[in-house]
Structure formats: structure tokens, C-alpha cells
TrEMBL record:
This is Alpha-N-acetylgalactosaminide alpha-2,6-sialyltransferase 6. Belongs to the glycosyltransferase 29 family. InterPro entries: Glyco_trans_29, GT29-like_sf. The lineage of its organism: Eukaryota, Metazoa, Chordata, Craniata, Vertebrata. It comes from Equus caballus. GO terms for molecular function: sialyltransferase activity.
Length: 353
């Protein structure tokens, strides 16, 4: 485009402008270096309507992303909040939601079903001892003292052979979890023939104890055919519900919603209180033991597994865990402590109340 002809004062209507100002403006218009830069070669601005559409689309996409992120964050916060409400935090216990149940009054015949014959679970001992599986018993030389007890209660597949100097041999009752049935029955010389007076009490979820394929009850009954002296009972489904109700009443937690498994120690303690006037427990640590900084050395979880997991590591991991189902060992011990005076329970090696 050609530059316009020079401006003159006659071209203006109104007050005349100085001639040098008009000339400078004309020169700037004709100077190519003073023009604004154009678009890069091969690229031209989009039509305004298309450009606006793309801008609008980008804004909508960003808005959708923000909405999705906000929804995901909200869901995660709600999930974490709900999960935290049902997890046992280490060292905490809500306390009872009602007065403690007197489970000394629970029916023995309704709670324990005979698996071999029509016998009834022996219902009374004046003085019982619970021998735990803790490595705190090693080196104690408690064997003779334990042998003198009226009734001795052991758990799962804790052996006495090779450890009798510390834990004794006498076994009046052995409380066995569904997960330990095969470990016990595969060693009849240790758990059946060695102490023929032993009464076995098996516990487990009803669907696992009597499932159509591989029923644990049938396994135990077949073992009874091979060992006529075997006396065995199973915790009834109604009593299993009572154990769950007891846990909820003592802790304020629903066992299933809090992803908790009751331990064999929980069943053993309740059974001992049901059957015995007084209970003494050997080898159970107090609930605050693992939070103390004075622990001198690593202690195996079981006295018969010296290379097994550390006791406190096992307790704390189970108490804190949120994923999956776990035993709440420390919480259970806090409950046992609250029962001590009420039900005549004492603890030693270590001693605590």
C-alpha cells in the first residue's frame, strides 16, 4: 500500500496543527520498522469465533478436572475418617459401654459342644494357672510350681517337651484356635499321649469349624477314633457371638467393623474365669510394656520359636494395623487388667495388675 500524500494544513477541519507534527506522523506510517510485527511465516490468527470456542472448551476441561480432583479428595478424607474411627490406636481404649458381664454365670453346657460322645465340660476348678507361650518364661524354673496347680491351661500348639523345667508338663485344658488344629493333631505324642488327661477346647468361626468341605469338626472326630482317650469340645456358635458381644462391651468397638480378630488369649482368659475361682497367669506382659523404653533385649513371641518374630513388634504392628484383620493384643491386655480385681486374676513373670 502506497504512503498517503503529504498532509497539509488545508486537509484539517478545525484548529490547524503544527506542520512538523503532521509530517512526523506521516513519516512514522511510512517507516516499515515502526509497524507492529506480523504473525510468523505460515501461521495466521484463527478466526475470532473459532478461537473463542477453543478457549471456552479449555476452560470447561479445566473445570471438569478440578471437580473430579475435589470429589476424589473428599472421598479419601471421608474414607480415612471412617477408617480411623474403627481402628485401635496404640495405647487407647474407649472403656466399657456398660457394666461388665458376669460371665461366671454363662451356661457351660450351652457354650461348649462335645465333639466326642455326650460328655459335659468339667465346670469348676478352685485354682487355675494359665501358662502363656511367651519367651518371658524361659529360665524361670517355674515347672515344679506349675505342676502343683489344681488346673493348668495352655494354648494352641505350645509344647512342654524340652521346656518342662520352665513351663511344666501338666495340662488340664488346652484351648486351640481353628488355625492350630492341624498343628496339634499332627503331633499326638506331644499333645495327646503325653498328657492323656487333657481336655481340648477348640474355637473358631462356625463357617470354618463346620464348612461342608474339610470340616474341622470331622477332622477332630476322626482323631478321636484313633485316640479313644481324646476329650474334645467346640465353642458353640451362640457362645462365639457372646465373645464378640463381650469384646464390644469392654472396648466400645465392634469386632468386625474394626477388623479385629479375637486372640486365643482372649478365649482362654474368659474360659478360665468361667471354670475357675482364681486365675494366675504366667508370662503375660502388661499392656504398657511395649511402650516402655527400658526393654533390655529382643524377646521372641513364642518360647518355643527362638528365631521367631519379636514380641513387642508383633503386638504393636497388630494394634496399629488398618488393612486386613488383626489381633488387638494390647487392647485385650488392658481389658484383662480391668478384670483382675473383679474376677481374681493375678499376673507374674512379669508381675503386674
Amino acid at each position: 500500500m502506497a504512503c498517503p500524500r503529504p498532509l497539509s494544513q488545508k486537509s484539517f477541519i478545525g484548529p490547524p496543527a503544527p506542520v512538523h507534527v503532521a509530517l512526523e506522523a506521516q513519516q512514522r506510517m511510512c517507516d516499515p520498522t515502526s509497524l507492529p510485527p506480523g504473525p510468523p511465516a505460515g501461521r495466521w490468527p484463527l478466526p475470532l469465533s473459532r478461537h473463542q470456542k477453543e478457549m471456552s472448551s479449555n476452560r470447561e476441561q479445566r473445570s471438569a478436572v478440578f471437580v473430579i480432583l475435589f470429589a476424589l479428595i473428599t472421598i479419601l478424607i471421608l474414607y480415612s475418617s471412617n477408617s480411623a474411627n474403627e481402628v485401635f490406636h496404640y495405647g487407647s481404649l474407649r472403656g466399657r459401654t456398660r457394666r461388665p458381664i458376669d460371665f461366671k454365670k454363662w451356661s457351660i453346657t450351652e457354650g461348649y459342644v462335645p465333639l466326642l460322645g455326650n460328655k459335659t465340660l468339667p465346670s469348676r476348678c478352685r485354682q487355675c494357672v494359665i501358662v502363656t507361650s511367651s519367651s518371658h518364661l524361659l529360665g524361670t524354673k517355674l515347672g515344679p510350681e506349675i505342676e502343683r496347680a489344681e488346673c493348668t491351661i495352655r494354648m494352641n500348639d505350645a509344647p512342654t517337651t524340652g521346656y518342662s523345667a520352665d513351663v511344666g508338663n501338666k495340662t488340664t485344658f488346652r484351648v486351640v484356635a481353628h488355625s492350630s488344629v492341624f498343628r496339634v493333631l499332627r503331633r499326638p505324642q506331644e499333645f495327646v499321649n503325653r498328657t492323656p488327661e487333657t481336655v481340648f477346647i477348640f474355637w473358631g468361626p462356625p463357617d470354618r469349624m463346620r464348612k461342608p468341605q474339610g470340616s474341622l469338626v470331622r477332622v477332630i472326630q476322626r482323631a478321636g477314633l484313633a485316640f479313644p482317650n481324646l476329650e474334645a469340645y467346640a465353642v458353640s456358635p451362640s457362645r462365639m457371638r457372646q465373645f464378640d458381644d463381650l469384646f464390644r462391651g469392654e472396648t466400645g468397638k465392634d469386632r468386625e467393623k474394626s477388623h479385629s480378630w479375637l486372640s486365643t488369649g482372649w478365649f482362654t482368659m474368659v474360659i478360665a474365669v468361667e471354670l475357675c475361682d482364681h486365675v494366675h497367669v504366667y508370662g503375660m506382659i502388661p499392656p504398657d510394656y511395649c511402650s516402655q523404653g527400658s526393654r533390655a533385649q529382643r524377646m521372641p513371641y513364642h518360647y518355643y520359636e527362638p528365631k521367631g518374630p519379636d514380641e513387642c513388634v508383633t503386638y504393636i504392628q497388630n494394634e496399629h494395623s488398618r488393612k486386613g484383620n488383626h489381633h488387638r493384643f494390647i487392647t485385650e491386655k488392658r481389658v484383662f487388667s480391668s478384670w483382675a480385681q473383679l474376677y481374681g486374676i493375678t499376673f507374674s513373670h512379669p508381675s503386674w495388675t
